[in-house]
Write a structure and sequence with these properties.
The chain is mainly alpha-helical. About 80% of the residues lie in helices and about 0% in strands.
Length: about 90
C-alpha cells in the first residue's frame, strides 16, 4: 500500500466521522455536508501535493475531493436501509 492509498483511506474515515458528527449534533444543516466534504477534500489534496505524495496539483485535488465525496455518499447509503425500517 502506497502513501497515496493511505491518505485516501484516512481521508474517507475522517470525512465519515465529521459527517456523522455534523448530522448528530446539528451544528450544520445536513444539506451543507457535501460542501463540508468538498472543503475537506480540497484541503487533503493541497496537503498531499505539498507533502510530495502526489506530484500533480490537479490530480491531488481530484483525488482528495473524490475520496471525501465518496465517503459522504457511503454514509448516506448506509442510512437508506434504516429509513425504510429494515
Amino acid at each position: 500500500m502506497t502513501l497515496n492509498d493511505i491518505i485516501i483511506v484516512v481521508t474517507a474515515f475522517v470525512t465519515l466521522i465529521i459527517g456523522a458528527l455534523a448530522k448528530k449534533f446539528v451544528w450544520k444543516k445536513s444539506k451543507y455536508i457535501p460542501y463540508q466534504n468538498l472543503i475537506i477534500g480540497l484541503l487533503v489534496g493541497i496537503i498531499a501535493y505539498f507533502t510530495g505524495t502526489i506530484d500533480n496539483l490537479v490530480s491531488a485535488l481530484i483525488t482528495g475531493c473524490a475520496s471525501t465525496l465518496a465517503a459522504g455518499g457511503l454514509y448516506d447509503a448506509g442510512k437508506v436501509g434504516k429509513k425504510d425500517g429494515k
